From TrEMBL:
Known catalytic reactions: L-homoserine + succinyl-CoA = O-succinyl-L-homoserine + CoA
Subcellular location(s) per record: Cytoplasm
EC number: 2.3.1.46
Keywords: Acyltransferase, Amino-acid biosynthesis, Cytoplasm, Methionine biosynthesis, Transferase
Active site: S151 (nucleophile), D318, H351
Record organism: Ideonella paludis
Pfam families for this protein: Abhydrolase_1
Name of this chain's protein: Homoserine O-succinyltransferase
Binding positions for substrate per the UniProt entry: R221, D352
PANTHER family assigned: HOMOSERINE O-ACETYLTRANSFERASE
InterPro entries, alphabetized: AB_hydrolase_1 (IPR000073), AB_hydrolase_fold (IPR029058), HAT_MetX-like (IPR008220)
Complex formation: Homodimer.
Length: 383
């Protein structure tokens, strides 16, 4: 199957103030985005792909002259792939607060002339969706064929059905949850504390000091990465293998292969990700809870989404967003007699499975997007 090939990021600026859930307002902001495929004559074949924590608008394809610049979901999006760009116009948007182009903590605060740093307002999943909706409207798209996302991106896809029910027809939510469990919030808090207590953090204004809180970022990434993998996948990859073939009886040196792997992941992450962005995005994860405004009743929350069709996908070894959490979403939809398909994929990879090329998973995604493509030919009705 072919790639979408070389792609170019685009950007779109907005001067209409964006009111955030926190009560703050962004008066001017810019969103970076990419598109793949061709928008059809009636602009009905657009699919928005929402990204997860450390991803971006670069969903598919590669950048000219850059090695290893493949989009983070390139195995899923492209000509002949499950989300087939021969049929769909696919859009990836970088969220506000990110460190990959869209307005965020690294950008200048127009009120001070200095980087926002810790002064960048807290953003929520709903704020991201509101910003995305403005960009989609600017592209001349009145209604999306589908919104797709995995993990935190899946939360955004769900939020689209609740905030803009008339502006999409299908929702595809993968490896996600209707809210974070207490354990997940706890993991996020430990990661945040690792960053905040790094001496180089400087209260979030480290840009002015010419430093980066890399130690905190390394630990945060190591904690996060552990939760993305299953016990089985870590055992299969590393087991108890040691780097030197035997113990060195050191409490500080790297002894086991899994330690070496985690440190490598942490080092790599600290070189490209922004600490303030990490704080913002993990807090947005914590806050997402559409049932809260309905007395904790998720079924009542989804009553507004009755005209949509849903695909919900989970993975058996994903303990961060377990299948039980996906089934909560499915139950809420069924309670409202909403058209929902559910696939629970037996995969050994843990939470990261949604990013991998599992034939059963991709088979489900391909079949569902073929269903959506067929509905475009019949005026929005499934054949």
């Amino acid at each position: 199957m072919a790639s979408v090939g070389t792609v170019l990021p685009q950007q779109m600026s907005f001067d209409t103030p964006l009111a955030l859930r926190s009560g703050a307002t962004l008066g001017h902001y810019t969103l970076h985005y990419e598109t793949y495929g061709t928008l059809n004559a009636d602009a009905s074949n657009a699919v928005l792909v929402c990204h997860a924590l450390n991803a971006s608008h670069h969903v598919a394809g590669e950048y000219a002259g850059q090695e290893r610049s493949e989009g983070w979901w390139d195995n899923l999006v492209g000509p002949g792939k499950p989300l087939d760009t021969n049929h769909f116009f696919v859009i990836g948007i970088n969220n506000l607060g990110s460190c990959f182009g869209s307005t965020g903590p690294m950008h200048l605060n127009p009120q001070t002339g200095k980087p926002y740093g810790a002064d960048f307002p807290v953003v929520t999943v709903e704020d991201w969706v509101d910003a995305q909706a403005r960009l989609i409207e600017r592209l001349g798209i009145r209604q999306l064929a589908a919104v797709l996302g995995g993990s935190l991106g899946g939360m955004q896809a769900l939020a689209w059905t609740l905030r803009y029910p008339e502006r999409l027809r299908y929702c595809v939510a993968v490896a996600t949850a209707p809210n974070l469990s207490a354990q997940n919030i706890a993991f996020n808090e430990v990661a945040r504390r690792a960053i905040i207590t790094d001496p180089d953090f400087h209260g979030g204004h480290f840009y002015e000091h010419g430093v980066v809180p890399k130690r905190g970022l390394r630990v945060a990434r190591m904690i996060g990465h552990i939760t993305y993998l299953s016990d089985d996948s870590m055992e299969a990859k590393f087991g108890r293998d040691m780097r030197a073939g035997g113990p060195a009886y050191s409490t500080q040196d790297i002894e086991f292969q899994i330690e070496s792997y985690l440190r490598h992941q942490g080092d790599k992450f600290s070189e490209y990700f922004d600490a303030n962005t990490y704080l913002l995005i993990t807090r947005a994860l914590d806050y997402f809870d559409p049932a809260r405004e309905h007395g904790g009743d998720l079924s009542r929350a989804f009553a507004i989404a009755r005209q949509h069709k849903f695909l919900v996908v989970s993975f058996t070894t994903d303990w961060r967003f377990s299948p039980a959490r996906s089934r909560e979403i499915v139950k809420a939809l069924v309670d409202n007699r909403i058209d929902v398909s559910y696939a629970e994929i037996d995969a050994p990879h843990g939470h990261d499975a949604f990013l991998l090329e599992d034939p059963r998973y991709h088979g489900v995604m391909r079949a569902y997007f073929q269903r959506i493509a067929a509905s475009l030919k019949t005026g929005g009705q499934d054949e």
